[in-house]
Amino acid sequence: MTLKKKLSPTFIQYIGLSFSLFAQNDLLSYAAAGSFGFLCSIVPVITMIFVIIIRFFHSSPDLLLDWFQNQNMLFETIDLPEILESVLSVKKIGFFEIILGISIFWLARRFFIYAMNGFRQIFRTQAERKNFFFSLIGFAGEAILIICISIIISFVLFVLSILRLKTIPFQIPVFLQHFGKFISNFSPVILIFILLTLTYRFASGTKPPLKLCILSSAASSLVYWVFLVFFHLFVKTSNYNVIYGVLSNIIIILLSVYTFFTLMLFFAQVIFVCQFFQPLLFEQMYLLSCSKGNKLQEEIKRIIYLQPEVFFNSHLIKYTMDSTLFDIGMDSDSVYYIVSGTISVFSNNHYEYLEAGSFFGEAECLLHKKHTSRASCVSDVQLIQFPEQEFQKLIAFSPEVNKTILSRIAQIDQQKKQI
After folding, report:
1. 399: which of 85, 103, 189, 263 is 20 to 30 A away, CA to CA?
2. What is the pLDDT of residues 125-144, one digit of tens each?
3. What percentage of residues in the chain have a pLDDT greater than 90?
4. In 3D, which of 279, 285, 276 has the Cα closest to residue 359?
5. 119 vs 2, more confident
6. Domains in the chain, please, with CATH?
7. Nearest Cα to Cα of residue 275 among 220, 219, 222, 211
8. What φ, ψ does residue 340 adopt, rounded to 5°?
């Protein structure tokens, strides 16, 4: 495959739409809100995990003490009885545990609200109102998911801390060491891939193809893994003192989580673009044709979307110079988009010249009226002809296009009345 074919206008349009809609939907703000909600959710859960471990120690202190006493090296370096006494002195259930449990459910709910708002913005879906019973089930499911993720993260961090010890107070079998390294290195990426696939498939509300969800999840996970690898090559907090190292680790965690949510939302935007490429491309084409500004951003968009190859096979028609597309009094059943060339539109003793990137004929087509003008080719012309039914489907996808078309029809009527 040649480089020219790889960088075809359609491929560039996919990329352009993804980045353009990502910025238009302000997804960086949703990524920041989602990462903040996730961190707020996971902190009380990890605290609860330690509370559960303390409860386990409280119920079986003898087993724990006997096991540690057999580890002479560890027992010689710390005052184990004093530590166990302080751990076992904790009450069974207290006010702290109650507040902690409420915090887990409330913060988990806030996190999912932040994440779902981002997906609704991307996939243009509205939140469905559910009765109290189903809301309660969803509420509990979200909290359970957060707890499961927190347990897995805690387990991975525990394995990593054990494997990184220079002196381990007990012997670990070789196969467990290799397995632990595999888990610590690849389980986060595998977990991210599975969660993203399920999220893209079921949280979007538009039922994207499973293959597309898998590919986007794999791409998002891979990019995130590469980011972490390169980031940790340049940032090593182990070289700093305790206080500075802890603060640096907090910043690294914040940046990593924010990057993850940014990638998650970006590839969700890619899924939406792939799923609805034609109506999204048409939306950009029509809005640009109505824009009168000369901003650099709009000029770049015109260059990207001027050649909509996805419509060429079924909609492209060619006319030679001096050909007539339609005349006054003819039935109107199509809308036209100029790919190249110049069209003259004669109406009310007035000529209007339309260049590439312009739409015309939409007012008569939508209102089911006969043409009140004559359209002729000033030069050789390439047009994309949209039949009425297909044009109706395309504009129904975009409220912004609907609003713009109504405004143009009202403007045309007003001009006719003035004449």
Report:
1. 263
2. 764 555 545 555 555 665 56
3. 25
4. 285
5. 119
6. 18-275 (no CATH), 303-418 (2.60.120.10)
7. 211
8. -155, 155
- 118-127, 131-140, 371-380, 402-411, range with the lowest pLDDT: 131-140
pLDDT in tens, 305-318: 888 999 988 889 99
With both helix axes pointing from N to C terminus, report the angle between 210-234 and 174-202 in degrees, rounded to the nearest 10. 130
Average pLDDT in the 395-400 region? 88
The pair of structure tokens assigned to 33 is 């809100």
CA distances from 71 to 19, 75, 80, 164, 323 (A): 57, 6, 11, 19, 95
Share the mean pLDDT of the chain: 75
Q: Which amino acid is at 173?
A: P
Token pair recorded at residue 182: 């595999």
Distances (CA, A) of 144 to 107, 148, 202: 12, 6, 17
Task: Count the Cβ atoms, other than its own, within 10 Å of residue 162.
Answer: 14
CB 201 within 8 A of CB 214: no
DSSP 309: G
pTM: 0.76
Distance CA 356, CA 209 (A): 35
Residue 343's pLDDT is what? 93
Indicate left, alpha or beta for 124 from its phi (over 0: left) and psi (-120 to 50: alpha). left
Give the pLDDT score at 207. 86
As given in the structure block, the two tokens for residue 231 are: 């980031």
Structure token digits, residue 22: 């990502």
Phi-psi region of 368 (alpha: psi -120 to 50; beta: other; left: phi over 0): left
Strands 334-340 and 381-387, sheet pairing = antiparallel
What pLDDT is stored for residue 142 in this prediction? 58
Burial class (CB in 10 A: 0-12, 13-18, 19+), 114: buried
